[in-house]
Write a structure and sequence with these properties.
- With 302 residues, the protein is an alpha/beta fold.
- It contains ten helices and eleven strands.
- 42% of the residues lie in helices and 24% in strands.
- Helix 1 crosses helix 2, helix 1 crosses helix 3 and helix 2 crosses helix 3.
- It is elongated and about 75 Å long.
- The protein starts with a helix and ends in a 5-residue tail after the last helix.
């Protein structure tokens, strides 16, 4: 009899391509992955992994069993979803991911509501960038993710995922208090053609959006500083070191020494939840979407 957890380990190895990647996806140690694979090899009586330099690769038998494992796990998940739907109770475990400002702006309120309403539901969460989160949900590493795209740059959502809108998030431009534009009621992006920018990491979706948007207006942005966290970006702006995009979600109070200026025409991010369509009937998914929507509608700066 094949052990389901060991098949899950094999599936994670096939999807992630390494022991460390599988361990991270399963939230276990690399030693635990190796032990599970050794037990699975003994159960099936065949070698499933072979050394490949410093890493490992699946043997022919490993790839064959991994294909079966993916189908078995998909059927198990569908069965679990159907049973949850039949029972109508919000129970079990729910794994959530969100980009950083959504994790800060929505998760505290939403996850507190889930804990109060559904004490039998265990929720785990993690910050992930939108593109990474989409594929983590598709792979089965997470059950639901909060992701974003921009008004002029959609985020591709692959087949097999459902989505629900949560909110539209206005974004302003943060400038130092003494900046020549600081007294304006609103600005055009063209007004910032000669500015130094504080932006995100090189490959992040929002950084790519900024480059795409400014270049579409004939502006080649001067990237002066990079910071993952919005609060760090705002601190650099307050020090007079550049300007940055300042979405409202998760922003909190603006630090002293900064003005935030609306952009004409308006710049917005679309924030939504995605999950696998085969989990669509799970009450825990529906409960999470409801809690996230309520958190998005809550008054204040989130």
């Amino acid at each position: 009899m094949l052990n389901l957890e060991r098949l899950r380990t094999l599936d994670a190895l096939a999807r992630h391509g390494s022991v460390s990647g599988a361990a991270e996806g399963l939230h276990v140690t690399t030693s635990a992955v190796s032990q599970q694979m050794a037990k699975l090899e003994r159960e099936v009586g065949q070698q499933l992994l072979a050394r490949n330099g410093r890493g490992v690769r699946l043997t022919d038998a490993g790839r064959l069993l991994a294909e079966h494992a993916a189908r078995i796990l998909a059927q198990v998940e569908l069965a679990q979803a159907d049973l949850e739907a039949h029972r109508g109770q919000v129970v079990g475990e729910l794994r959530l991911a969100a980009f950083p400002t959504a994790a800060r702006g929505l998760f505290p309120t939403a996850l507190s509501a889930l804990r109060t309403r559904h004490p039998a539901l265990r929720v785990r969460s993690r910050e992930l960038e939108p593109e990474e989160a989409v594929y983590a949900v598709l792979r089965g590493d997470f059950d639901l993710a909060v992701v974003l795209d921009w008004y002029n740059k959609p985020l591709p959502v692959p087949d097999g995922l459902a989505k629900a809108a949560l909110l539209d998030d206005p974004a302003e431009i943060a400038v130092p208090e003494g900046h020549p534009l600081a007294d304006r009621d609103e600005i055009d992006l063209e007004d910032l053609a000669e500015e130094d920018w504080v932006t995100w990491g090189e490959s992040e979706f929002c950084h790519e959006w900024l480059l795409y948007t400014l270049r579409a207006k004939g502006i080649e942005p001067r990237i002066a500083h990079r910071a993952e966290e919005h609060h760090t970006q705002l601190a650099l702006v307050a020090a007079g070191l550049g300007v940055c995009v300042a979405p409202r979600l998760g922003r909190g109070p603006v630090p002293p020494g900064i003005r935030t200026l609306p952009v004409r025409p308006a710049v917005r991010r679309h924030v939504y939840a995605v999950w696998r369509t085969d989990a669509d009937r799970r009450p825990s998914i529906r409960a999470a979407v409801t809690a996230l929507r309520e958190a998005a509608e809550a008054p204040g700066d989130r």
